[in-house]
Amino acid sequence: MRGLSGKRVIVTGGGSGIGRAVCERFGEEGAEVAVFDLNEEGAQETARIIQGSGGKAQAFKADITDRGQVDKAVAEFEAGGPIDVLVNNAGWDEIKPFLDTDAGLWKKVIDINLYGNRSFQGVPVSACLIRRVVAGSGPPRPSTAGDLPTARGRSCG
Fold first, then answer.
1. Global pTM value
2. What would the pLDDT profile of 28-68 be if each residue is shown by its tens digit?
3. Which one, of 64, 36, 62, 59, lies nearest residue 49 by Cα?
4. Residue 153 resides in a domain
5. Residue 35's domain spans which residues?
6. Residue 120: closest CA among 56, 59, 77
C-alpha cells in the first residue's frame, strides 16, 4: 500500500478486528481515515490509535444498514475534501448450529453483509483513483467508467 499519502479513505467496520488493522495501515501510509462503525467507542479508539501515531483519523457512528446514517456520515467526511478510497469491510455473523438459527438471524446477516454495502452505492469515490488501482501500473487503460457521473454528478472522464 504505497502512494496513499494525503488520500481520504472510508473504512466500514473499522472499530475492531480486521477493519481496525486496515485503518491503522492506511494511517501509517499517510491517508486521512474515516473510521465507520456501529460501535462508536471502537471507532473512536481506532481513530485515537491512528492519531497517536501521528496520523489523521475521524470516527463516525454509522449503521451500514441505515442509508440515512451512511449518507450523513459520508457528507460530514466529504466536507473536508473528496473521498478517494472506500473499503467495505463491515460484516457480521453469529456462529451457531444451522438448526438453531431463525429467520431473524438470517435477515440480520443478509442486511449487514449484503445490503449494507449497497448503502454506499453512489458515494463519490474518485473514479480516477479506482481506475489506477484496478488497472495497476503502466499506461492508463481505456474505460468508460470514468465517463459515467456518480450519483452526485461528478465525473473524472
1. 0.78
2. 999 999 999 999 999 999 999 999 999 999 999 999 999 99
3. 59
4. no
5. 8-147
6. 77
